[in-house]
Amino acid sequence: AIAAWTLCATGAGAASVSEVRVGTHEDGHTRIVVELDSPAGYRLQSPQPGARPELVVDLDATSIQRDVPSKSRVVKKVHVEPSSSGSTVHIALATGDVAVKEMLLANPPRIVLDLKARGAIPKADPEADAAVAAEEPKAAADEFAGVASAEPAAVAPPTPAKVEVPKSEPV
């Protein structure tokens, strides 16, 4: 089981998330880095029994909504959304049986999570993946309700500019 950890913010004012990255490594672990503009607290929640495998990180730092793609076999997707206390990071996992190593780094402040499956990773189930996608928050869709979509307009290739170079007089 993964323990919930809390680190108190040491900076004055509210921190914000600068960037979220997901990287895969040759030894099989996946690293998730949450880069901040100043130190902030967080709480890590382990997957709930019977629920879809997901780690949840509650951050005491604000963030815009963002989806971070993953090429990892362990981490399917990382979704960040604003919350009433800062922001929440949802890490969709291929399996709920993962080992998590947490690190706090400075200059710039970062929360680093190294994840590694403890056993075999189940084969991908396209139907289950579609169900997970259908469960995603509708906020983004609701935000654009009533907005018509259009095909991108055709763009003509640029016309080369005609440049005249003045002839210089010999000195």
Q: If you had to describe this structure to a student in words, what would you say it looks like?
A:
With 171 residues, the chain is mainly beta. The protein contains two helices and ten strands; from the N terminus they run ββββββββββαα. It has helices spanning 126-135, 139-143; strands spanning 15-24, 30-36, 42-45, 54-59, 61-62, 66-69, 75-83, 86-93, 98-105, 110-117. It has a five-stranded mixed sheet, with no helix packed on it. Strands 3-4-8-7-6 form a five-stranded antiparallel sheet, with no helix packed on it. β3 (42-45) and β4 (54-59) form a beta hairpin. The N and C termini lie far apart (82 Å).
Layout of secondary structure:
Layout: E1 15-24, E2 30-36, E3 42-45, E4 54-59, E5 61-62, E6 66-69, E7 75-83, E8 86-93, E9 98-105, E10 110-117, H1 126-135, H2 139-143
